[in-house]
């Protein structure tokens, strides 16, 4: 909860900061968008499926802005479902009411209602994305969010000749809300997807393929691929036959150049990669295949199909109907390739790169766990035990009557408890359910060891932090050794907002809690969110203008 200031002081400080903020954005452009969320029918995989989408598009509209711009998106919910939108990776500094996770920062937008999300994109450049943050609607309610350098500024790499968003997804041939409801009701994990997609299309290798995304390129040019894994539950391998990539950013954080022919993206990840079109004139498949991290591999159940798009050279020697060249894809269980990519990224070594904070105020170890809990009365087809997940033995439950951010701002008791544990309970301790948050002092530096159990079954969990980027100081397999800081990279660690914690392994992250509010920290495998694999950081107000929670906007949805 916030520190107990009198309301008049809060109003005075917020008014003072608002004046400063208004002056600072006089010269900034405002990007205005309207998102109308409605049903649309899509024919794919020999079926016609009704989906929920934005402005009749899959993927939805791309938001394109420059660093420093303001953004206003009016979301009109014409669907039959409650809905929120999350702007994945936007730091939302002092705009926590626009972050979007349902019942964390807002009540959902109800059918036939609307809400305008307002935020700034200050101090960020690169590829992010937006998506629904309520139920499995994220399967089709998503799109790219591109932040280019401020006018007059340049990329920290040679300017590309072409920029292309590549949004990867998963496709179900039935209503995804029903897929989730069936899983929750039965106490089981949801059925796997029926296909993968590239920019909304599955490609030529599936039955009844009718459209394929085609990227036309000129020979000997540089293409910036802005690749996004918008899939719900699957890590993805991404390749283009005959071509290599130079990774220059991940999660809208610049990196040292990293050369590879295989990109690996967990759900929620973005990768900016330069591709030089120096192959022989022709057509080449862009291919996407699932990486199944589940151990033992005999338990793997992920979709093992391949989505394709086409990279086609504009050349007189390219035959229009020629069969594209297919890349050799990794095996679906190839953890060596996945870990080499995830572990190999580094931050830029330039003088302007952000420095790792050296003093740590809060040390935590968070163990990620899968297990079981007794079925509850709402699970009509559950038999005895229900699959569950937990962080430090706590299976997280969202509130139902008021969002956590409203409870923090209004100091409303009984909505949550501020007793999330800093370490895992002893072995054998039963999993418990709760709405537990970890309170953090404003501007404190937090270090977290994320431990993925080595016991079977185990899988790679992409953990996403709202409201902050973090430094990835170290990663490894097996159990983390407490106090083993000699292996930390404090010189050029990569920064991210979503980290793939390896199967049977660990990772260490560090961030500064300089953004007051309620910030969700959860697995970005959507199947794991409703079963409890998450928690929330409650960051206190500071003591100066620009360091405390602003009041909620007038149109904030009500529960």
Automatic annotation (TrEMBL):
Its cofactor is Cu cation. It is found in: Secreted, Extracellular space, Apoplast. It is an enzyme of class 1 (oxidoreductase). Residues 1-28 form the signal peptide. GO terms for cellular component: apoplast. The keyword Repeat applies. Residues 37-151, 163-315, 414-541 form the Plastocyanin-like domain. InterPro entries: Cu-oxidase-like_N, Cu-oxidase_2nd, Cu-oxidase_C, Cu-oxidase_fam, Cu_oxidase_CS, Cu_oxidase_Cu_BS, Cupredoxin, CuRO_1_LCC. GO terms for molecular function: copper ion binding; hydroquinone:oxygen oxidoreductase activity. It comes from the Eukaryota. Binds 4 Cu cations per monomer. Coiled coil: none annotated. GO terms for biological process: lignin catabolic process. The keyword Methyltransferase does not apply. Its EC number is 1.10.3.2. Keywords: Apoplast, Copper, Lignin degradation, Metal-binding, Oxidoreductase, Repeat, Secreted, Signal. It catalyses: 4 hydroquinone + O2 = 4 benzosemiquinone + 2 H2O. Pfam families: Cu-oxidase, Cu-oxidase_2, Cu-oxidase_3. Lignin degradation and detoxification of lignin-derived products. This is Laccase. The lineage of its organism: Eukaryota, Viridiplantae, Streptophyta, Embryophyta, Tracheophyta.
């Amino acid at each position: 909860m916030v520190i107990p200031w009198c309301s008049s002081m809060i109003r005075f400080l917020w008014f003072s900061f608002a004046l400063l903020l208004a002056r600072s954005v006089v010269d900034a452009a405002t990007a205005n968008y309207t998102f109308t969320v409605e049903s649309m029918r899509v024919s794919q995989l020999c079926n016609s499926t009704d989906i929920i989408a934005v402005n009749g598009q899959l993927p939805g509209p791309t938001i394109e802005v420059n660093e420093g711009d303001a953004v206003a998106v009016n979301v009109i919910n014409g669907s039959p479902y409650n809905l929120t939108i999350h702007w994945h990776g936007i730091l939302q500094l002092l705009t926590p009411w626009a972050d979007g996770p349902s019942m964390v920062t807002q009540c959902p937008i109800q059918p036939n209602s609307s809400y305008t999300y307002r935020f700034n994109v200050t101090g960020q450049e690169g590829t992010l994305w937006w998506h629904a943050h309520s139920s499995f609607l994220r399967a089709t309610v998503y799109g790219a969010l591109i932040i280019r350098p401020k006018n007059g500024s340049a990329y920290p790499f040679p300017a590309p000749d072409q920029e292309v968003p590549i949004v990867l997804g998963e496709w179900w041939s039935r209503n995804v809300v029903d897929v989730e409801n069936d899983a929750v009701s039965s106490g089981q994990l949801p059925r796997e997807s029926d296909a993968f997609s590239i920019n909304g299309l599955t490609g030529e290798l599936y039955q009844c393929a009718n459209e394929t995304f085609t990227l036309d390129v000129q020979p000997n040019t540089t293409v910036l691929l802005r690749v996004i894994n918008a899939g719900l539950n699957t890590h993805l391998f991404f390749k283009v036959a005959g071509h290599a990539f130079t990774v220059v950013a991940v999660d809208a954080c610049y990196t040292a150049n990293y050369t590879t022919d295989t990109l690996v993206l967990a759900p929620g990840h973005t990768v900016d990669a330069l591709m030089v079109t120096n192959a022989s004139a022709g057509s080449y498949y862009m291919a996407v295949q699932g990486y199944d991290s589940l151990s033992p591999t005999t338990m793997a159940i992920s979709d093992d199909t391949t989505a394709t798009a086409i990279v086609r050279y504009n050349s007189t020697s390219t035959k229009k109907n020629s069969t594209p060249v297919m890349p050799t894809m990794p095996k679906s269980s190839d953890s060596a390739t996945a870990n080499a990519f995830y572990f190999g990224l580094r931050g830029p070594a330039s003088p302007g790169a952000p420095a790792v904070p050296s003093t740590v105020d809060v040390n935590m170890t968070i163990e990620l766990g899968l297990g079981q809990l007794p079925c509850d009365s709402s699970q009509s087809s559950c038999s005895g035990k229900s699959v569950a997940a937990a962080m430090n033995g706590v299976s997280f439950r969202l509130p139902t009557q008021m969002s956590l951010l409203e409870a923090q701002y209004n100091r409303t008791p009984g909505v949550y408890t501020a007793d999330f544990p800093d370490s895992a309970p002893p072995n054998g301790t039963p999993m418990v359910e709760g709405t537990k948050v970890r309170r953090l002092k404003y501007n404190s530096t937090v270090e977290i060891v994320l431990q993925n159990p080595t016991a079977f079954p185990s899988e790679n969990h992409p953990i996403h932090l709202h409201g902050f980027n973090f430094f990835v100081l170290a990663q490894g397999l097996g159990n983390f050794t407490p106090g083993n800081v000699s292996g930390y990279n404090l010189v050029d660690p990569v920064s991210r907002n979503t980290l793939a914690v390896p199967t049977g392994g660990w990772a260490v992250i560090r961030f500064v809690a300089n953004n007051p509010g309620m910030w969700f920290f959860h697995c970005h495998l959507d199947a794991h969110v409703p079963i409890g694999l998450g928690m929330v950081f409650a960051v206190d107000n500071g003591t100066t203008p620009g360091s405390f929670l602003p009041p909620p906007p007038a149109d904030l949805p009500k529960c």
